[in-house]
C-alpha cells in the first residue's frame, strides 16, 4: 500500500491538471500560447504584418478576457496563474526577436528588455532552488506588459504597406511614446523583482518554520 501512494498522488495531480486545463479561461490561455510560433512565423516568414497585428490584438484581448472569465465563472486556478504571465512573456520575447531581425528597434533596446527576462529567469531559478513559491504578478509588471502590447502593434502598423504617410506620421510618435514608457516600466518591474528576491533569500532560510514554502510578491 505504501508503494501505491506516490503513484496515486501523481495520478491525482495529473487529473487535477487536466481539469484545470479544460476550463474555458485556461483553454483561451493555451490557444494564446499556441499562436506564439504562428505569430513569429508571420513576422519573419512571409512578413504578413497585418495578420500578425490581428494575432497580437487577439493575444492582448484574450489576456484580459481569460482573467475576467476566470473570476466570473469562479475558475481561478494555479495553472491559469502560470499560463497567463508565460504567454505574455513569450509574445514579448517573440516580438523583440522579430524586431531585432527586421531592425525595427535598436539592438540595445532589445538587449535591455531581453536582459530583463534573463534576469527574471535567474531570480525564479534561485527562488525555486530555495523552495519559495512562484511570485505573483503585480500591477507594475502587468501595467508594463499592457503598455508594450499597445506599442508593438503600432510599431508594426507603421511598417505595413497599407499604412499611408498620414497614418504613419500620426502613429509613429504615439508608438514610440508607448514603447519608451512600457520599456521603462518593464525594466523597473524587473529591478523590483530582483530586490524582492534578494530580500526573500536574505530574510528567510528555507527549511525553517513551514518548510520554506514562502510566497514572494512578484512584479
Explain what this protein looks like in three dimensions.
The chain has helices spanning 4-21, 24-44, 49-72, 78-101, 107-129, 139-157, 165-203. With 219 residues, it is mainly alpha-helical. The protein has 2 domains: 1-87; 104-219, no CATH class. The longest helix has 39 residues, at 165-203. The protein is globular, with a radius of gyration of 20 Å. The relative contact order is 0.11.
Strand content: under 5%
Major beta-sheet overview:
none
Query: What count of domains describes the coordinates?
Result: 2
The succession of helices and strands, N to C, reads HHHHHHH
Q: What is the terminal separation in angstroms? A: 44 Å
Number of strands: 0
If you compute it from the alpha carbons, what radius of gyration comes out, rounded to the nearest whole angstrom? Answer: 20 Å
Total helices: the number is: 7
Class based on secondary structure composition and strand pairing? mainly alpha
DSSP helix fraction: over 70%
Average residue pLDDT: 82
| Form type | globular
Please mark out the parts with pLDDT under 50 across 5 or more consecutive residues, or reply none: 206-219
Pick out its properties.
single chain, 219 residues, mainly alpha, 2 domains, 7 helices, globular, disordered C terminus
Amino acid at each position: 500500500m505504501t508503494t501505491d501512494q506516490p503513484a496515486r498522488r501523481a495520478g491525482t495531480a495529473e487529473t487535477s491538471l487536466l481539469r484545470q486545463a479544460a476550463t474555458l479561461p485556461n483553454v483561451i490561455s493555451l490557444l494564446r500560447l499556441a499562436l506564439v510560433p504562428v505569430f513569429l512565423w508571420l513576422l519573419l516568414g512571409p512578413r504578413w504584418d497585418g495578420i500578425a497585428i490581428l494575432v497580437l490584438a487577439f493575444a492582448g484581448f484574450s489576456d484580459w478576457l481569460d482573467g475576467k472569465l476566470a473570476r466570473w465563472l469562479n475558475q481561478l486556478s494555479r495553472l491559469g496563474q502560470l499560463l497567463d504571465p508565460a504567454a505574455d512573456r513569450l509574445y514579448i520575447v517573440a516580438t523583440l526577436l522579430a524586431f531585432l531581425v527586421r531592425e525595427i528597434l535598436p539592438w540595445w533596446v532589445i538587449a535591455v528588455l531581453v536582459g530583463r527576462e534573463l534576469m527574471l529567469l535567474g531570480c525564479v531559478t534561485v527562488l525555486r532552488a530555495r523552495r519559495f513559491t512562484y511570485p505573483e504578478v503585480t500591477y507594475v509588471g502587468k501595467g508594463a506588459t499592457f503598455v508594450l502590447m499597445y506599442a508593438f502593434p503600432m510599431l508594426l502598423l507603421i511598417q505595413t504597406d497599407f499604412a499611408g504617410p498620414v497614418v504613419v506620421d500620426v502613429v509613429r510618435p504615439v508608438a514610440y511614446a508607448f514603447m519608451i514608457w512600457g520599456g521603462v516600466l518593464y525594466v523597473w518591474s524587473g529591478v523590483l523583482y530582483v530586490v524582492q528576491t534578494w530580500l526573500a533569500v536574505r530574510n528567510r532560510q528555507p527549511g525553517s518554520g513551514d518548510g520554506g514554502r514562502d510566497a514572494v510578491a512578484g512584479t
